[in-house]
Amino acid sequence: MKIGIVGAMAQEVDILLGLMTEKTEIKVASAVIFDGKIAGKSVVLVQSGIGKVAAAIATTALLQLAKPDVVINTGSAGGVAQGLKVGDIVISTETAYHDVDVTVFGYAKGQLPACPAVFLSDQKLTALAGKIAQQQGYRVKQGLICSGDSFIAGGESLQRIKADFPQVTAVEMEATAIAQVCHSFAVPFVVVRAISDAGDGQANMSFEEFLPLAANMSSQMVLAMIQQL
């Protein structure tokens, strides 16, 4: 099995990159793609860059060049579901865009034409991630993860997202673009992220302070998944 892993920032992929052996590196547009082995498994690790377009470019390059059997999106997220705290793990059951609106034509909020209203994560990958989170003693929540090209820091933006997507668990800037590309290529995917902030008025300061913690926790989760896939 070949495992594809996508993280937006260097901080979100560096731990896994440090574990990679037999490593080769190529650059495609804004994406950096590392091919090698982690824990004896064939892994392709991608630093995509931030935002939906960068994530889509990187994931398309990953799928066309490396042809992984599964894709895991790792990194940090803003936790907006009640009870979520910094350091908790969120695992996608589905993803949606919070900044897409073509409802005037009868589509659901967040739905693009010719696409499903949400992109469903692979059930086996979701179950594996949930099992590992419990084994490692992390607080974990599975659910809807919403993506958009904005860093959410409370205010009207957060209230709008909660109104449009009452079941939203976490927000970030790449996962749904990755999910859409995987859906188009019929490749199973899951999002496994650690909470770095609460998406509120203190989100920017919390993110900067707790990004290293979130990156470490999500990387440890993904490493355990690699070992068990």
TrEMBL record:
Pathway entry: Amino-acid biosynthesis; L-methionine biosynthesis via salvage pathway; S-methyl-5-thio-alpha-D-ribose 1-phosphate from S-methyl-5'-thioadenosine (hydrolase route): step 1/2
Keywords, in A-Z order: Amino-acid biosynthesis, Hydrolase, Methionine biosynthesis
Amino-acid biosynthesis recorded as keyword: yes
Domain Nucleoside phosphorylase: 2-226
GO BP term, pick one: nucleoside catabolic process
Catalyzed chemical reaction(s): 5'-deoxyadenosine + H2O = 5-deoxy-D-ribose + adenine; S-methyl-5'-thioadenosine + H2O = 5-(methylsulfanyl)-D-ribose + adenine; S-adenosyl-L-homocysteine + H2O = S-(5-deoxy-D-ribos-5-yl)-L-homocysteine + adenine
A cellular-component GO term for this protein: cytosol
Annotated SUPFAM superfamilies: Purine and uridine phosphorylases
Enzyme class per UniProt: hydrolase
EC number: 3.2.2.9
Keyword Amino-acid biosynthesis: yes
InterPro entries reported for this sequence: MTA_SAH_Nsdase, Nucleoside_phosphorylase_d, Nucleoside_phosphorylase_sf
Gene Ontology MF, one: methylthioadenosine nucleosidase activity
Residues reported in the UniProt entry to bind substrate: 78, 152, 173-174
Its job: Catalyzes the irreversible cleavage of the glycosidic bond in both 5'-methylthioadenosine (MTA) and S-adenosylhomocysteine (SAH/AdoHcy) to adenine and the corresponding thioribose, 5'-methylthioribose and S-ribosylhomocysteine, respectively. Also cleaves 5'-deoxyadenosine, a toxic by-product of radical S-adenosylmethionine (SAM) enzymes, into 5-deoxyribose and adenine.
NCBIfam families per UniProt: MTA_SAH-Nsdase, PRK05584.1
Protein name per the record: 5'-methylthioadenosine/S-adenosylhomocysteine nucleosidase
Protein species of origin: Lonepinella koalarum
Taxon lineage: Bacteria, Pseudomonadati, Pseudomonadota, Gammaproteobacteria, Pasteurellales
